[in-house]
Amino acid sequence: MPPPTRPDMTSHHRILVIKLGALGDFVQAFGPFAAIRAHHQRSRITLLTTRPFVAIAEASPWFDTVWVDERPQLWRPDRIWRLRRRLRGGGFERVYDLQTSDRSSWYFRLLGGDVEWSGIASGCSHPHANPRRDTMHTIERQREQLAMAGIAEVPTPDLSWVGADLGRFALSVPYVLLCPGGASHRPAKRWPAERFTAIANRLADMGITPVLLGSGVETAAVAAGCPRAMDMAGRTSFLDIIALASEAAAAVGNDTGPMHLIAAGGCPSLVLFSHESDPALCAPRGQVTALRRPSLAELGEAEVAAALDRVLAP
After folding, report:
1. Proportion of the chain above pLDDT 70, given as a percent
2. Based on the structure, what is the number of domains in the chain?
């Protein structure tokens, strides 16, 4: 009789991946998504995510099915029961929890049974057992988590599958993408709009089209202050942004989700950080230059312009 062999971890038939958001975190999971797909080529892989990410997940080659997590509250036991029933009915043999939050770890309890689980849930079969995990950059943390679950290689994701009709935007080239907005509840992460306006006018004077992405009062203010800019606020999907980034000369923006999409699209990018976030832990990866000050009010137009010139240099 031949000696027993270790289970073939690529032979699981049903895999669940959990990644709920936010946008920057979702983009930084592209590599792990691709690694899981490559490792489980013969499996049916389901992604559990939130509604903003459904379209890009469905367009990608990484998942067979995408489920929306409505994030039920404890005071809605009917919705919790519905999620529990759905999770248990999925027949999953392994789960990769890339969210690794209290909520996603709670789903380990909802799922129950003997399912293999990679994450930080107490009692799971494949824990990310590094007590310093919170001091690691998101990408290194996820790579180590997957390595502990048997996936040794996490590639730089190939985004050649992204397709978008850029012709409908009638863009003038060359162009630079500007992301002046940000989450309304994080004002310290937003460089002053008037300084973005100055950068936009400087680009226009150089014969480079400033293209404004995002939404909010900052984007509207820059559009008003630089009529030569192309205002694309509210007109682009996540896939559009990646496609735009692949053709852009450069990009500059606050530490926001769209800058992660832009960097993933291969665009040379300048990202502005304050004390609110640490680029050592969360900066986009790729051709990225980070400028950081305790307060973005301390970051002058001249310094950003000089850094952008270096990014633009051939």
Report:
1. 96
2. 2
Mean pLDDT value across residues 30-59: 97
Helix (H) or strand (E) holding 273: strand 269-273
Does 120 map to a domain?
yes
Residue pLDDT, tens place only, 216-264: 899 999 999 999 999 999 899 999 999 999 999 999 999 999 999 999 9
> Among candidates 107, 96, 110, which has minimal Cα distance to 17?
96
Strands in 250-254's sheet, in edge-to-edge order, are 230-231, 209-212, 175-179, 250-254, 269-273, 288-292
In the DSSP assignment, the letter for residue 29 is T
CA distance 177 to 259: 9
What is the DSSP track for 249-271?
Answer: SEEEEESSHHHHHHHHTT--EEE
Same domain, 85 and 179: no
Do 90 and 174 lie in one domain? The reply is no
The 3 state secondary structure assigned to 220-254 is: HHHHHHCCCCEECCCCCCHHHHHHHHHHCCEEEEE
Q: How far apart are CA 136 and CA 113, in angstroms?
A: 31
Tell me, yes or no, if the pTM score tops 0.85. yes
Going by their DSSP bridges, the two strands 44-49 and 126-127 should be labelled as: unpaired
- Grouping H, G, I as helix, E, B as strand and the rest as coil, residue 272 is strand
Task: Tell me, yes or no, whether 190 and 266 share the same domain.
Answer: yes
Asked if residue 214 lies in contact with residue 180, where contact means CB atoms within 8 angstroms, the answer is yes
Q: Are residues 135 and 177 located together in one domain of the fold?
A: no
CA–CA gap between residue 297 and residue 143 (Å, rounded): 35
Cα–Cα distance for residue pair 143/146, rounded to 1 Å: 5
Looking at the DSSP bridge assignments, the partners of residue 48 are 18, 67
Given a contact cutoff of 8 angstroms between Cβ atoms, the answer to whether 254 and 269 are in contact is no
Are the C-beta atoms of 165 and 201 separated by less than 8 Å? no
Q: For residues 283 and 285, give the distance between their C-alpha atoms in angstroms, rounded to a whole number.
A: 6
Q: 208 by DSSP, 3-state: which?
A: coil
Q: Within 13 Å of residue 100, how many CA atoms lie on the same side as its CB?
A: 20
Q: What percent of the chain has pLDDT over 90?
A: 86
Same domain, 106 and 184: no
